[in-house]
Amino acid sequence: AITDPLSCVLLTADSFDYKTFFVKVGLNSKSNDQVAKVFGILDQDRSGFIEEEELKLFLKNFSASARALTDAETKAFLAAGDSDGDGKIGVDGKTALIKMIIPASETS
Ligand SMILES: [Ca+2]
Ligand SMILES: [Ca+2]
């Protein structure tokens, strides 16, 4: 688990917004190295990609009792990070992940 105070946020949230989430986790202010580390955590099978299935269970990396994302939430998340449209967040996705995070901090 990355951090704990989140769990209440996650458990009460009935809609997931990754931008809000990243801001809450504080990921928006993390360095590239730390983002790469998070990428490694999310890529559970170490395939080098974050696939839809891994995204779906994304919140569980932060809290074991968190729910899975809905299909719609997963797809929105995936679409935001999948810059080349192959249906998964790849090596380029580390950059994409950072890009997803940076705007989140700028708009809050
Ligand atoms: Ca993977
Ligand atoms: Ca991709």
From TrEMBL:
Belongs to the parvalbumin family. Keywords: Calcium, Metal-binding, Muscle protein. This is Parvalbumin. It comes from the Eukaryota. Residues 30-65 form the EF-hand domain. InterPro entries: EF-hand-dom_pair, EF_Hand_1_Ca_BS, EF_hand_dom, Parvalbumin. GO terms for molecular function: calcium ion binding. It comes from Serinus canaria. The keyword Cytoplasm does not apply. Ca(2+) binds at residues 43, 45, 47, 49, 54, 82, 84, 86, 88. In muscle, parvalbumin is thought to be involved in relaxation after contraction. It binds two calcium ions. GO terms for cellular component: cytoplasm.
